[in-house]
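User:
Can I borrow your eye for a moment on a structure tokenisation matter? Would you put together a sequence-and-structure record for a protein of your own picking? Please set it down just below, with no commentary around it:
AI:
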Amino acid sequence: MQSGQEEDVQDRWSAVLIASSAGGIQGLGTLLGGLEAALPVPILVAQHLNRARETRIVNILSRSTALTVKLAEDGEEPAPGTVYIAPPDRHLCMRADGSLFLTREERVNYARPAADPLFESAAQVYGKGVIGCVLTGSDSDGARGVEAVKAHGGTVIVQDPGTAEFHGMPKAAVGTGQVDFVLALTDIAPAITRLMQSPP
């Protein structure tokens, strides 16, 4: 039997996960710009980044959204209304206690950070409280993660491949048959807001 605390976690939304790659900075800006600062959950982002140079993603996205945007740090507890970006050359994952951890484990889909480790680890911790989103990208990263989110009862939103700057990632996600919503980019933030208004 679940404890009262575990039941409470399962009766509320816990996190929004976002996967993006090529074209993703602009896509993230649009999505995050449509969300209010009072969002009751954290947002965890795996955007493929160039490991050879310092990233400016925090500064760029902060200009687009009222949410707090930062690079994720190992061991921190994710807070509502905050966007945690996986740093270059690190996978962002979640421990069983809900804290974040960063790892240099092998590349997934030729990428580090990659979406699949994030989606799989968060789904194990938060179950049906997860909303997983796959945006523009030119590979298949996120497809395995989408299957993990659905296997644990979560909700999946995918950018319509026909409207994505690069359709590889959203097309692979849709191809899993495990997607709840396929939406134009500008419709994803309103969909997340509506979902937050009722229990998962």
